[in-house]
Write a structure and sequence with these properties.
- The chain is mostly helical.
- The chain folds into two domains: 100 residues; 170 residues, no CATH class.
- Helix content is 75%, strand content 0%.
- Helix 2 packs across helix 6, helix 8 packs antiparallel against helix 9 and helix 14 crosses helix 15.
- It is globular.
Amino acid sequence: MNSSKASVNRFFEDQIKENATLLEKTKRAIRRTAFLRVAVFSLTVIGIYFATARGMEWVIGIGFAGFGIFIALAVRHARLFKKKAWYQTLLGINRDELKLLAGITEGRDEGREFLDESHPFTFNLDIFGKGSLFQFIDRSATRGGRKALAGLLANPLKDEKLLPDRQQAVAELRDKSLWRQRFQATGLLNEEGENTVEEIFNWMEGGRTSFDKLFYKIMLVLNPLIGFSVVGLIAAGLLNYTAFLLFLLLPFGLVGMKLNAIGREHVLVSKKTVQFQKYARLFGLIEAENFESGLLAEAKGKLTGDERSAHSSIRKLSGITAAFDYRLNLLVGIFLNIFFLWDVLQLLRLERWVKSNNNRVRTWFSVLTLFD
């Protein structure tokens, strides 16, 4: 028993050491990137200043090169911060595991909202609360998983025919320590709201204005063609600026007539992109792993059985909602709607996504809850 506990301790200590090393390496990379961003920006500004004496070609060349490198460094900087948060989360998970091995539960979720004095046994047997069984075994990465665990503790599985399948699944997951930690860290990185998943279901099942019509499909092609043609003809001196003002009546009319419907839909999905990305990564972890126990293999099959998997579908949804959120930037939103009818395009994409996946989403999330 002692040798087994020592082996488990060493595993978590090794993980702490490895992730601490990677975290420190990432922090150094962040500092280097920050320095390079400042240096490149400064050199670009100085270069443009001296290039003015040589001509506009030099100014444009140095400007494009310098700011192109600056943007690339900014993107790298953002990715490094995500890596930093990842390693910090893994460090926290492994440190918590060492504390639990030592019997320390301070700071861990007690599941107090599940306390029920009228329950036959959970209140008296310390299933929930401080120092409870829930505190020691909860490793949930989602709200759904947390509620499902509480439900199992309060209402244990009694069907003897199903127990062996669950025991095999638990035994298989027991030996996938690193996979379990990646799954947990992915969920913990972006905390979800109490009813996030239910809000997604309600949004999908609610009524909406249809944009999947021939008229809008035609206008999504014609509008940019007309818009850029007008701009090109004005630049060539063949039209005056009045032509552009007349063109603006087209996108403003098309988007303006549906502004209320667009606003309602955006309120329902706004700022959920991060959550969709989280769910996509969690589905991806399940789909990429090999499971041999019957319960887990069957559950995984529900995610990958159709022509488009849960991971790729939810990832596509996150891309659509991210594009829809461009309207939050006033200048970008105006430009995109003028030339591309951007809001109409995203609502059309959302409508098609819902039609394709509405009957499968609840199944996907029930599988996610099972694994969690």
